[in-house]
Amino acid sequence: MMAPRDLLRRARGFSLVELLVSVVIGLLALGFATRMVVGSEKSKQAATSGADSMQNGVLALFSIERELAQAGWGLNDPLINGCDTVFYDANGYVLPTASRGGNIISPLAPVVIQSSSSGSDVLSINAGSSFSNTGMARLSGSYASGTAAINIDRVPYGFSGTDVIVAGGDVIVMTPEAAGSARCAMAQVSAAVAPGGAGAQNQLLIASGGANRYNSGSLGVSYTPTTGGRIFNLGPASNLAFHTWSVSQGFLQLRATNLAGSTQQPATVTDNIVALKAQYGFDRRAPALFLPEQGMQVDTWSSTMIDADNDGTAGSAGDYARVAAVRIAVVARSRNPEKPNAAGVCSATPSTAYTVFGGSVSVPLSVTGDTVTWNCYRYRSFETIVPIRNAAWRPTP
Fold first, then answer.
1. Model pLDDT for residues 144-161, shown as the tens digit of each residue
2. Is the CB of residue 141 less than 8 Å from the CB of residue 133?
3. Which region holds residue 369: left if phi is over 0, alpha if psi is between -120 and 50, else beta?
4. 184-188 and 83-86 as β-strands: parallel, antiparallel, unpaired?
5. Residue 255: is it exposed, middle or buried by C-beta count within 10 angstroms (0-12/13-18/19+)?
6. What is the mean pLDDT of each successive set of 10 residues along the chain, which is 397 residues long?
7. Other residues' Cβ atoms within 10 Å of the Cβ of residue 269
8. Could you write out the three-class secondary structure of the chain?
């Protein structure tokens, strides 16, 4: 039988020591469970953030890479590539500018990079759509700037699909026969005229107004028998693919001639992109070894134009002809920032310089106007090299 003293002790319940031990054990278990939940949530957030940046970065890289594969179609003739060009668009699109011999020009080239040492680069990718991307006609006589009629040396077949007066629409490029003797000029054919009768003059008209968005009524450049003039057809104005990619306030943006509503103000392609960087890949072989039709090779990468053809001028037309490839890097960040620690400091990304292209180019990660410090986000960079295939698929000079 149980002694009365033992029965009394059993009736009193837990002692204070036993209760305290139970509380401590419970608190330890609760702390362990809390740490497990917090750690699991952090891992989940990191995985989700990585997926966000992966999705945005891949989309941005794919969009630009696809356009680079077509860059230069119709613009790869040596007379066009790199030519300082007069361009007018009633909808507000402008050609990128670049430096040449200390002067600012507007080169007509497959790819033009406007490099920035303190932010994202601006990348312009240009291409036409004509199936016949060779010189189609020559200027007959002279052309005086300010006139809307261009006299050519043959019946204007191929510009509007017929040899009678019809509505036009193709975009043309006028280049001097002697490279560098005059600026190039772009316009839109408003009508192709092939009058009957002996001695009648065949003409391309570039009247302004109406649907002729690329016409100011003049080429803006005069051509003489000395400079000559050759006309190239870039295809219908609606398909002219001149695109400019940029990054602003965490958004990848696009300005395009063939995307409604985005010629003057850019359209947003994807968000949470903090940087876009690009570099030219130059083929700097000696002139005797530089045979593009037999293939091009890259031996120098540069964020800016260099004197790749050794003619003494950085950014000359010959330098644009030496661009064999372009490499691009897109830096994306996580959609949601991570929470700071108890001291209010974020540690998702250490405060060290972020670099791309093998560490050769630094990338700033801060976003203008962002209320959250850049250290609270996670980042991923996506890089690729795209050969400019139309640089090799071109007529010989």
1. 998 999 999 888 877 753
2. no
3. left
4. parallel
5. buried
6. 56 67 76 65 53 81 94 91 96 95 95 94 94 75 92 81 51 90 93 72 89 92 92 91 96 95 94 96 94 91 96 95 96 89 84 88 90 90 94 75
7. 17
8. CCCHHHHHHHHCCCCHHHHHHHHHHHHHHHHHHHHHHHHHHHHHHHHHHHHHHHHHHHHHHHHHHHHHCCCCCCCCCCCCCCEEEECCCCCCCCCCCEEECCEEECEECCEEEECCCCCCCEEEEEECCCCCCCEEEEECCCECCCCCEEEECCCCCCCCCCCCCEECCEEEEEECCCCCCCCEEEEECCEEECCCCCCCCEEEECCCECCECCCCCCCCCCECCCCCCEEEEEEEHHHCEEEEEEEECCEEEEEECCCCCCCCCCEEEEECEEEEEEEEEECCCCCCCCCHHHCCCCCEEECCCCCCCCCCCCCCHHHHHCEEEEEEEEEEECCCCCCCCCCCCCCCCCCCCEEECCCCEEECCCCCCCCCCHHHCCEEEEEEEEECHHHCCCCCC
Angstrom distance (rounded) from CA 51 to CA 397: 49
Longest dimension (CA), the chain: 140
If we measure between CA atoms, which residue out of 36, 78, 264, 98 comes closest to residue 175?
78
Q: How do 267-271 and 251-256 pair as beta strands?
A: antiparallel
Give the global pTM. 0.84
158 within 8 A of 150, measured Cβ to Cβ? no
At 321, list the tokens.
Answer: 């002809």
Q: Which two tokens stand for residue 115?
A: 């490099």
Amino acid at site 297: Q
Answer for the pair 231, 172: CB distance below 8 angstroms, yes or no: yes
Per-residue pLDDT tens digits for 296-331 = 999 999 999 999 999 999 999 999 999 999 999 999
Q: How far apart are CA 341 and CA 397, in angstroms?
A: 64
Place of tokens 């917090």: 38
- Retrieve residue 96's tokens: 């990128």
The CA angle 56-373-350, to the nearest 5 degrees, is: 80
Residue whose entry in the numeric block shows the structure tokens 């204007």: 156
Q: 369: exposed, middle or buried (C-beta count within 10 Å: 0-12, 13-18, 19+)?
A: exposed
Distance CA 202, CA 158 (A): 13
